[in-house]
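Why run this: before we spend reagent on co-expression, it is cheaper to look at a predicted model of the complex and decide which construct boundaries make sense. The entries below are exactly what would go into the expression plan.
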Amino acid sequence: MKIVYILWLRQIKRFIRSKSRIVGSVVQPLMFLLALGFGFGPVFAKAGQGNYIQFLASGIIAMSVLFTSVFSGMEIIWDRQFGFLKETLVAPVSRFQIMLGRTLGGATVAFFQGTIVFFISLIAGFRPTSGMGILLGFISMAMMAVIFTAVGIAIASKMDDPHGFQMIMNFMVQPLFFLSGALFPLDGLPKALGSVIRINPLTYAVDGMRGAFTGVTHFGLGMDMIVLTVVMISFLSLGAYLFSKIQI
Amino acid sequence: MNNPVDNSIVVDHLTKKFKDFVAVNDISFSVAHGEIFAFLGPNGAGKTTTIKMLTTLLQPTSGTILVNGFDPVTQTNEVRKSFGIVFQDPSVDEELTAYENMEFHGILYGVPSEIRKKRIQELLMIVELWDRKDDIVKTFSGGMKRRLEIARGLLHHPKVFFLDEPSIGLDPQTRKHMWNYILSLNKKEGITIFLTTHYIEEAEKIAGRVAIIDHGTIVAQGTSAELKELTKTTTLEDAFLTVTGHEIRDEELGKGDQMRERMRMRRRVR
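The model came back. Tokens follow.
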């Protein structure tokens, strides 16, 4: 347990000391929230869908959690490059503990980030509908953070070239975000797009959060939670397996 | 001679193949408790592959290894607890302070908190970093980082200390200092030292015994006096060149090495 804790603590310390990361990760969601929220708000309302900020906030919180968690998971690439990975891999501890500590550390950072965006959304006019809903929304957020940190670790375990990092961000993380229902409702979409969105785990995280915070959900909160739990266990296992296979 | 009771490291008919390439070919040697053993060889001779196998990072294709009486393949954790290592490339966390790096290591190796605190202070004082203990490592020079790594590698009271090219990139002053610490620890705590280096005159001065590896096989081993006598040369460096030839070796870099190489270049440019 101590091992998991010290690895967790290391991630937190690194995050707190990296001022540019904190600022950067707040500015981008803020831009999305303000430009899209207020820009498309009138159109959204005219289409009879109600308040767009109310709809969009969960999507933007999810965006911030997604980017931060994948990034945190992929920090392994830098640790490999700066040699620190070796220090942990020759230590008399199991790789599973190392992986778990890193996942929880990365997920905590992402969760914290999502919380900040949650409060920014409140200022922009977002109004969660119930206290219980807020709690459930934060649980979805936490699960999502764990899932995508594990995804980042899984990818970084297989990748030894840091140049691949930007590619993963552009060709995997961005599509995940745009094809998730974070920005638009899922009703009446073209069939092909609809099916892609349905197999994207992020979709269920966004839907779960939105359902919990505002009561509006596409799949139903129960369904979202089941999918998130299954996906979380699968990706944690995958991440742990691939991390255990790292050769240096 | 191959008795694990008297020896820290016993390597018997060790071979490592990567697909068709034989990196280490049927080598055998042993290192006695408290001995300083230098493992020399040109680039790509198999030094790092051997260290990786000794330190549980690679599995041998065949042959056996005992480190402090434990088998790195089947008793991984016992072996890991029993050695300390300073890698060829830096491996400290640059975003943490010197003290935090030490503490992280201590917890990872299960050193109890009371002993940990005392030992960290003692070691950081020895390597003269105690007054910089709360500074972020990013701000350290190359020599300071290396000293920190030495201190860190010794924190959990290892019985064997692996030093892979510890002198690279250090100025003569820092090098001299570093060897002074290491030699005094060798004397005081009886730690066995296993080192690789390209600075052959260093090995000649420091090491009790030397093994020279080339193309994956050990081509000579003994005290430096024995090697000089064998090759009828006056310095270990000449003995080294006699047994390994004068041809320049181009090391074939693995993927990881290529990446580090690129980083090194980039850092140099900066």
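The radius of gyration of chain B is 18 Å. The longest helix of chain B spans residues 172-189. Bring this page to Monday's planning discussion.
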